[in-house]
Amino acid sequence: MLQSLAGQEVFTLAEGEGSSRLFVHCSLARHESLIPLARALPPARNIYFDMPGHGRSAEWNGSDYQTDVVDIAAQLLDGPAHLIGHSFGATVALRLAAERPDLVSRLTLIEPVMFAAATDPEAIETHRAAFAAFVKAWTEGDRETAAKLFVAMWGTGPAWDDLPAKMRAMLAAQIHLIPAASAAIEDDVHGVLGKLDRVTCPVDLIEGSNSQPIMSAILDGLAGALPQAQRSVIEGAGHMVPITHIAQVASVLQGR
């Protein structure tokens, strides 16, 4: 259903009973991307939403994208929950856990693109060089090229030209949401990394073995700052590991 949350019209869904789990999808996706993972886990009250500008939610109309998504997530919870976030969604879950630890009983960060947490200068420089072409395309107003480059780096693998025309158009239309969140994840403008000592719940840090090199550097930084962090690498997986390797991710979450 559509709800008005944090000044946005947001599609939300809750199913099941028991303790709560909140799933936060990645950029340019929608809540359905994480439903198969949710259903591979033991029964619970699973809560999902489409971030503004995604899925069945309305277009984003705010001024700080990550802040709006964090506020939406917080308003969907009425008590401690297991937060499971993927990619940008994981940065949302991380910030919510740091700012509202009372709402988080367990935190699962799958391929969190919190670039500001990376501590390896070489990995950081490699990331910036790889992303420079995207920045150039976006700056020049070439939305389709920007979307093509972004999907090549962070998508599930199919070549841009093999995607349906409707999907390519949708991705190009949404691509402005990537730079809208850049200050939060590249520069940590909200000071999340300075609050990680507040996250005292169990934390799962999950990455794919074939993901971008920057990801291991990000998890190195987070693992050193989060008191109860446990790392897992899913062999043969890339950035979209919760979609392509559901059973392996579910096994990690059930094995702790």
Automatic annotation (TrEMBL):
Classification via InterPro entries: AB_hydrolase_1 (IPR000073), AB_hydrolase_fold (IPR029058), AB_hydrolase_sf (IPR050266)
Domain AB hydrolase-1 residue range list: 22-245
Originating organism: Octadecabacter ascidiaceicola
Protein name according to UniProt: Acyl-CoA esterase
PANTHER family linked: MONOACYLGLYCEROL LIPASE
Cross-referenced SUPFAM superfamilies: alpha/beta-Hydrolases
Domain of life assignment: Bacteria
